[in-house]
Amino acid sequence: MTPDFLKGATAVADIAAVTDAEFEAQVLKSDKPVLVDFWAEWCGPCRQVAPILDELNKEHGEKLTFLKMNVDENPVTPSSYRVTGIPTINVYQGGEVVKSIVGAKPKAALLKELEGII
């Protein structure tokens, strides 16, 4: 069942999208850690990492909420977190960035980076 705050959200693959307007409520105020993939349509490495994040979402979605943010459509949040290269994957917990991963990485490397979170 889809949580109310995700109803009507645009999904990119199997991961829901978050907007600048929804970021505080869905990410910063979340009870569990939230992984946000900052991406863009034109970004090749972003397309490479997308299916890996889909797999991680299926495997670890109960421990971590997975969201995507299109940086072209939502410029405010990425600039406030100094996202200068994409893909950038930030993990937020308690309203703070607890992990930042820049660039496309294979699944094993992402799992290693996310140790202790998932």
Explain the layout of strands and helices:
Layout: E1 11-12, E2 15-17, H1 20-28, E3 34-39, H2 44-60, E4 65-70, H3 76-80, E5 88-93, E6 96-102, H4 107-113
Parallel strand pairs: 2-4, 3-4
Antiparallel strand pairs: 1-2, 3-5, 5-6
Mind explaining what this structure looks like?
This protein is an alpha/beta fold. It has helices at residues 20-28, 44-60, 76-80, 107-113, and strands at residues 11-12, 15-17, 34-39, 65-70, 88-93, 96-102. A 6-stranded mixed beta sheet has the order 1-2-4-3-5-6, sandwiched between helices. The chain is globular. The two termini are 22 Å apart.
Q: Sum up the overall morphology in one term.
A: globular
CATH superfamily: Glutaredoxin
Query: Structural class of the helix and strand makeup?
Result: alpha/beta
Instruction: Strand order, main sheet: write it out.
Output: 1-2-4-3-5-6
CATH architecture descriptor text: 3-Layer(aba) Sandwich
Main β sheet profile:
6 strands, mixed
Helical region count? 4
Distance between the termini: 22 Å
Q: pLDDT average, as an integer?
A: 90
Strand content: 25-35%
Low-confidence stretches: 1-12
Number of domains as seen in the coordinates = 1
CATH topology: Glutaredoxin
Number of strands: 6
**What's the order of the H and E elements?**
EEHEHEHEEH
Question: CATH first level: which class?
Answer: Alpha Beta
Helix content: 25-40%
